[in-house]
Amino acid sequence: MTMVSVSDIRKQYATVTAVDGVSLEVRRGEILGLLGPNGAGKSTTIRMILNIIRPDAGAILFDGKPFSPPVQNAIGYLPEERGLYRKSTLINTILYFASLRGLSAAESRRRAYDLLKRFDLLTYYNRKVEELSKGNQQKVQFILAILHEPSLLVLDEPYSGLDPLNQVLLTEILMELKKKGTAIIFSTHVMDQAEKLCDAICLINKGKVVVQGPLGEVKNRFGTQAVRIEYEGDGSFLAELPGIRGMVRYENYSEFSLDPAMGTSQLLRSVLAHPAKLEIRKFEVAQPSLNLIFIQLVGAAESGGKGGGHE
Fold this sequence. Notes:
The chain is an alpha/beta fold. 34% of the residues are buried. The protein is 33% helix and 30% strand. The protein has a six-stranded mixed beta sheet, sandwiched between helices. A five-stranded mixed beta sheet has the order 13-10-12-11-14. Helix 3 packs across helix 4 (105-118). It contains ten helices and 14 strands. It folds into two domains: 2-218, Rossmann fold (3-Layer(aba) Sandwich); 222-310, Alpha-Beta Plaits (2-Layer Sandwich), CATH 3.30.70. It starts with a strand and ends with a strand. It has helices at residues 42-49, 69-73, 90-100, 105-118, 134-146, 164-179, 191-197, 215-221, 264-272, 290-302, and strands at 2-13, 16-27, 31-35, 57-62, 75-78, 152-156, 183-188, 200-205, 208-214, 226-233, 244-249, 253-258, 278-286, 309-310. The radius of gyration is 22 Å and the shape is globular.
């Protein structure tokens, strides 16, 4: 069942069109990845969904109805920017934000205790927010976003500042919320996170939707001609091989798509022709990653349609 329906929304500031005709849907029990490079219009789109700013055109409906106070109380929001009162104690901060959502002090304390315990923050119960590390402050902001058990949860770069263990914990909680039927909008420019977490994506660039749909369908649209190579040595020459496009290259790993006329066996022969440069540990053909799709779509737009690369 659709929780949020965004139809052709637009927002312009002076001579800059921040969002230009974006449409998307997020269903209950679904995680939608709102993806794009920095400055793509993700945060502006989120602020319009949250009714922080109004769109110049288009419509946003929640369960088929326009924004209203009950809708506002059913939304949880984790902004990318820190928004905590640094001089307040942790528990007082939580109680204050919970009261804005209509929770009683007793219920707020009960929920706060459970979440603080789960996030290993009970020792900070009566400490000032400014005494917490950036990662712990991020955990507190997440607690504030879910304390009132929202129907819609909007997350803007939620993993920012979290170490790997807390990233795993955050992911576990998101999976639990999804199972309970929470609709989740997950905004990020980190494609690896989105690929592991999201059911569907909406990739925007320069204010426009570039591609959207269920994650599996989006990847299928880009075929199976993605090649991944793990190796030891200098892989810089790979970008110069014929038939290569949309390349993502790291120190000992490369992924790229092939021109339709380029066969994988032909590519393998070309790679093996440079034994002094590379020792191949793994060579596989698979669906393209979101990273590669991002490079192809956004990189091509930035380079005038010639494809893009990354190192």
